[in-house]
Design goal:
Blueprint (H helix, E strand, L loop, with lengths): L2 H14 L6 H11 L7 H18 L1 H14 L9 H22 L1 H5 L5 H21 L11 H13 L7 H11 L4 H26 L1 H33 L6 H19 L7
Helix pairs in contact: 1-2, 1-11, 3-10, 3-11, 4-5, 5-8, 5-10, 7-9, 7-12, 8-9, 9-10, 10-11
Length: 274
Amino acid sequence: MGVIEAILLGIVQGITEWLPISSTAHLRIVPALLGRPDPGAAFTATIQLGTLLAVLVYFGRDLIRIFVGWCRGLRGGEAARREEARLGWAIVVGTVPIVVCGMLFQHWIKNDLRSLYVIASSLIGMGLVMAVAERVGRRTKGLDRLGVAAGLWIGVWQAIALIPGASRSGSTISGGLFAGFDRETAARFSFLLSVPSVLAAGLKELKDEWTEIVGLHLTPVIVASLVSFVVGYGSIAFLMKYLQTRSTVVFVVYRVLLGVAILVLLQQGLLKPF
């Protein structure tokens, strides 16, 4: 992989990681359209650390406030009932489903599920789920109503994002809307909930694939990660502002059209599943 390709993939990762359109799908589709091989699950998980850094910077104050409040809440009493402590436990509990599922289905996630047939189907399927969530969600709850039960519920939806093409933000925002939260709250918690799992996945892939990354892909990984950080920060800022006044319908339409286009290209033999 050359530097130019790494920059391109970094831009793709930065834009699509936090928009509800699936970064994994685009990191498979874009190279395939350019006639390039799949960069692999390890590369994808590693450069996610760049977009994770964007979350840490953008939501840094919130994360520090939640962590401090959660630590104080461990002592019990009034501190345990404060919003920060509740959000901390919501994040902890909400991370469990994706960790368990990631460990159980790691082989399929890295191999069979990266088929473009699976990705195209996931793009369409989750797009339709997002449309239903927009339709039936009451959108009456704010962050002050988010506790452990809601965290676990949204965490289950986050685990669905292990299927390439589903989208972490798409699935968790949908879960939040189904639970009655407004779009901004659903998106904000989606970003906060992503921190532990993305960090763990990225560090695990760095450890497991360190020899390969250092030997063949160190420069592209660094370049792609830096680019994804810068672009990812802008993507977060855009989505948070966008969802204050608009729905996710535009992303639904995009997902369905892209999924259908990929299926057509596969059927015509212009793209290969792997």
